[in-house]
# Entry
Amino acid sequence: ILKVLFFAVLINNILADDFADKLDKIVNEYNHIGMFSGNVLIAKDGNIIYEKQYGYSDWEKKTPVTAETLFRIGSLNKMFTHTIIKQLEKENLLNMDDPLSKFLNLYPKETGDKITLKMLIEMKAGLGDYLNNPSFNQNRERFRTVNDFLEIIKDEPLLFEPGTGQEYSNSGYVVLGGIIEKVTGKSYTENLKERILTPLGMSNTHFLLIGEMAPNMANGTRITFSGEKKNSPFMEQPSPAGGMFSNARDLLKLDQYLRQTGLISQGIRAGGTPVWNSVLAQMKDGYTVIINSNFGQAADEIIMRFEDAVNGREYPKPDV
# Structure
């Protein structure tokens, strides 16, 4: 029995080293051509087996990225919103088959009756994307509450009959945030803090409005035509669909909670803007890969190449 346990541990160590070596190679390929800035983490069953930082959290001041650096995680917010909805379902406060009209009067009742919570989560409800709405883009600073977003979302036409298609929808996840507020009688941010951030000890995850600050925040980075890397401060308000700040170690706490509770399905999730990109990949055999970048879409590209590498497939080399 001891010999079997020894070989099992040895095989696990070899697999862990292989995971780390493959990711390290890919990230360094990006770093070598100046196309990555951020942090990278691999954990096995919640234990960190690889963690590295690259580049600068502020390229103008040359402030190095550290393990504590906070990145804007974009649509990874949706994991938090989905999790709270599933918590409320477990508490028998709602059901995935409940119609939207049971909670919010956003649309005529006939339409609201057709849209279920499950459709909103799976982006099959026909809702679009408030990020493309001129009313949002003309005055982003005024969108400070979930209700501020709902006021423009309710006037957005549906893209298709609920349940007949699927389209990526930021608006749908804001609506889920509105349902959370209606069911609990508390704001989305209160729910976020009381249900996830505080219980899990996620003290480095923040729902920051434009102009608000937290320690160790990175700046988004854009490249000028001459090749210089310049700061690009965030100018979008966060919502239940995206825009919080966090770091890899905090996201690992969420990963472990979700693995232990099984509230939402495991998989690879990503979020970002033209100057931010984050990935939380829940992989087989208890491996988790987290990549945060304040630089373009590098995290998405790295995780796709990493998937190829661990499955023995060739992957394209990065180019400038």
Remarks:
- The chain has a mean pLDDT of 93.
- The two ends are 52 Å apart (CA to CA).
- The first strand starts at residue 38 and ends at 44.
